Amino acid sequence: MERIENVDLKNKKVIIRVDYNVPLDDKQNIIDDNRIKASLKTISYCLENNCKIILLSHLGKVKTEDDKLKYSLKPISKRLSQLLGKKVLFINKTSGQEVVDVVSNMKNQEIVLLENTRFEDLDGKKESSCNLELAKFWASLGDVFINDAFATCHRSHASNVGISKFCKKSCLGFLVLLELDNLLPVIENPKRPFTVILGGAKISDKIETVENLVKKADYILIGGAMAYTFLKAKGIETGKSLVDSESLEFAKKMLDENKNIILPIDHIASLEINGKTSLKDNLEKDDFGLDIGIKTRSLFKEYLTKSQTVFWNGTMGYYENEAYQEGTKYLCEAISKLKITSVVGGGDTASCVINMGYKNKFTHVSTGGGASLELLAGKELPGLKI
After folding, report:
1. Fewer CB within 10 A of the terminal residue: the chain, N end or C end?
2. Are residues 170 and 227 in the same domain?
3. What is the pLDDT at residue 49?
4. Is the CB of residue 57 less than 8 Å from the CB of residue 16?
5. Any domain includes 386
6. pLDDT digits (tens, 9 = 90+) for 241-250
7. Which of 12, 13, 17, 35 is catalytic?
């Protein structure tokens, strides 16, 4: 794979696919700018090489015209300008003559951010279906394409795979290289014992990952709503807890074939999603299980303490409510005190780890939930393969 350091960038027009898919509040204020900060190393390197920089990113899922009001990249251009200490020119178009004219008149060290690439999905899903005409247009804007959006590497979109087909030169940016440097050793040759923590809601999103990991991991600790599908598959009462009913047969098969899957032995429960909580060894028919209990936290800690490598994807509870964040926080604290290789696989888990102040306590916190899971499932990522 071609690395950014090995490509001549001097005086070139450089297209960088970044990942600015950041959370916004109702007033389009940025809630978490970590993904913007993660792009700074590659952008700064290009500035040092006297480049003209054209940035592409998506934001949110754009399905209607109304979504354009919610998911414009304009607020991101303002924050990026602040972080870089230099102006980032925002163009509220994704393609067309205006884009061509602005890019044609760029000077070295100028930065342009185009509008949300997924606005093109309103016209026949051109971005997400990797429309080649759109990809050819974007590729025509520059001399070199840099893929620095790890979180989209498992997608074949016009703005990553498509551009690579047409641009004269393509390479990987520092963020993607950092992800690979940290994730591949965990996947290919982890120090043992190797423990995987899985949580979140649905198993169906992670079936291939689970299938691949049970062959590689010494222990798999399962929490979050995912645990209730496994517990139900064992015939244990799960009350009104969230269960992925379509995955019950898969969960039963995994439990029958593997003795390295460790499930919760107690629960933080409630009779209502946002109601008064209680600690229970066994759930009753009207209970919602919403976080791992005290005994489960200690049990999981025992396995973590004897581990040399830990990979974690999925929160241990209904983290949107502070009352159910304690299980996740407990594991953060336990892992932070261990001298081991510890990797968080992006998504909600990464947000929790960062927001709780543990980012620097882990070996690596990935920016790509889906991409890191597909790597763990043993899949080739289109954005890397190209």
Report:
1. N
2. no
3. 97
4. no
5. no
6. 999 999 999 9
7. 35
Interacting residues of 23 by C-beta distance below 8 A, sequence separation 6+: 30, 31, 32, 351
Q: Is the pLDDT of residue 273 over 90?
A: no
CA distances for 319 relative to 196, 328, 356, angstroms: 19, 8, 11
205 is a domain residue: yes
The pLDDT, as a whole number, for residue 181 is: 95
Q: Using one digit for the tens of pLDDT, what is the confidence trace for 120-136?
A: 999 999 999 999 999 99
Q: Is residue 383 one of the residues assigned to a domain?
A: no
Helices 207-216/248-257 angle, 10° precision: 0
Single-letter residue type at 93: K
Q: Is 345 a catalytic residue?
A: no
Which of 223, 368, 370, 383 is labelled catalytic? 370
293 is catalytic: no
Decide if 3 is catalytic.
Answer: no
Convert the pLDDT of each residue in 157-198 to its tens digit. Answer: 999 999 999 999 999 999 999 999 999 999 899 999 999 999
Identify which of 41, 51, 49, 48 has the alpha carbon closest to the alpha carbon of residue 15: 51
Say yes or no: 156 and 213 in one domain: no
Name the nearest CA neighbour of 111 among 50, 199, 26, 184.
50
- pLDDT of res. 61: 94
pTM of the model: 0.91
Is residue 347 flagged as an active site residue? Answer: yes
What pLDDT digit, counting tens, does each position of 207-226 carry? Answer: 888 898 888 999 999 999 99
293, 345, 347, 368: which is the annotated catalytic residue? 347
Local confidence band at 203 (pLDDT 50, 70, 90 cut-offs): confident
Q: Are 111 and 83 in contact (CB under 8 A)?
A: no
Please check whether residues 49 and 149 belong to one and the same domain. yes
Q: Which of 202, 216, 280, 359 is catalytic?
A: 202
- The count of structural domains within the chain is 2
